[in-house]
Amino acid sequence: IPEDLSEMLAAGTKEVHEKAESTQFVKDFLRGRIRKELFKLGAVALYYTYTAMEEEIERNKDHPHFAPLYFPAELHRHEALARDLEYFYGPDWQSQVSCSQATQQYVDRIHQVGQDDPVLLVAHAYTRYMGDLSGGQVLKKVAQRALKLPPTGEGLEFYQFDAIHSAKAFKQLYRSRMNELDLDMETKKRLVDEAVKAFQFNMEVFEELEEIGKTIQEDVLDAGMPVHGAMGGDISKCPYYAAKMAASGGTAYACQLAMAILRHPTGQVLFATWFAALAGLAAWYLM
């Protein structure tokens, strides 16, 4: 049984993480299907979530159980999200957006934790920021291509961490800081429980977006790859199936996956998506 907090969090959230990645909203993205209106609403949800989290982080930046994880210049996202929303909605974006019901429940929990039980903020920061760093650059390129966004990065600043030169090195630093926090085993278990709740809040936002999507009359922007199911699990035709096989089957499948996808005209973009999926992103990141 692991005792390092980072290992406990990874193990304790594995099941709910996989459940989040199997939601319809996420699967549609994995299939290369992105709806711009839902992408925009997802950015709105992220804006309210990160604004709440970063308000509470500021409130608790000197708290002994959070201070070692205080990296505002490197990690904080709410200002980048505000710029993305201005790009999508225009200069009066603030009058056009509102916090949805599912997002509000997530926001309320973050504020409750920050004010009443600040150590649990560690779980929320871990769930969001470690996922952000696991695939942001990959998914930035996918969204840029599929939504026909400018190559200069407008609308996708959320994914760009200018102050972090190596995501891998920074994640190692962050996990080591987490492991050095002076916490007893009971508190670590409470943090795992809170991280599971954070994933559940994310899933509720996904489900809400899926419901909203049913009411939006809009052509789906399809990146052009066949979807799993129609292809009967043929690895040469279905990159989603191949990605799943590669995750459990080793390098031979991964090589077949690469060859199958790269033969397709849109293969390079979609290869990035499947690679991101295999990297085990936090739930939002498949949005």
TrEMBL record:
Entry-linked SUPFAM superfamilies: Heme oxygenase-like
Family membership noted in the UniProt record: Belongs to the heme oxygenase family.
Domain of life the protein comes from: Eukaryota
Keyword Disulfide bond tagged: no
InterPro entries named in the record: Haem_Oase (IPR002051), Haem_Oase-like (IPR016053), Haem_Oase-like_multi-hlx (IPR016084), Haem_oxygenase_CS (IPR018207)
EC number(s) given by UniProt: 1.14.14.18
Alphabetical GO biological process terms: heme catabolic process; heme oxidation; response to oxidative stress
Keywords linked to the UniProt accession: Heme, Iron, Membrane, Metal-binding, Oxidoreductase, Repeat, Transmembrane, Transmembrane helix
The UniProt record lists the keyword Cytoplasm: no
Entry's transmembrane regions: 269-286
GO MF, one example: heme oxygenase (decyclizing) activity
Record PROSITE patterns: HEME_OXYGENASE
Protein name stated in the entry: heme oxygenase (biliverdin-producing)
